[in-house]
User: What shape does this take?
Amino acid sequence: MDKKYIPAILLITAGVLLLLYQMDLFYLSTPDLISYGFVVLGIVFLINSFSNPHKKGVLGGVFFILFGGVMVLMRENMLPRADEFGVGAFFAALALANLAAMLTKREKLGNLAWVIVFGIISGMFFWAYYGYYSTWYVIHQLEIFWPAALIIIGVLMVAKAYARKRRSLAVNG
Assistant: This one.
């Protein structure tokens, strides 16, 4: 599909839905609109990413589809509506989106780091939801060990610079 048609298709779709809403034939509440809007936005990003040689849009597309899907399932009472579960699902969607981006792009180290970071954060929220520990315990631990995040980010920056230097040395001889 040609990219220039996507805005027109989105406008036509939005116009049809709004017209049906005005005629009382179709109703979406604001949370429903946001949930389904995330899924549609993710699909648009994924469609655009297939035509992009650098696969830009995979990260956003997968994230919006996954998180929008989770929000739809939470609204339909198929998933729990607890705050810990929702925040955990948000970070899990970010982790899975980075995993998809890592599998489709050449730059893998940065995405792998974010998969690990977001996976750990989502796991902490899911564990709090299922009652393995108190949320206050996590907050207390974060207050103590937040400098570890600076150390990890610094190590990742050094590793990325080292990998880039090795790549340029291999290319230049």
The CA atoms of residues 7 and 44 lie 10 Å apart. Residues 3-133 form one domain. The mean pLDDT is 86.
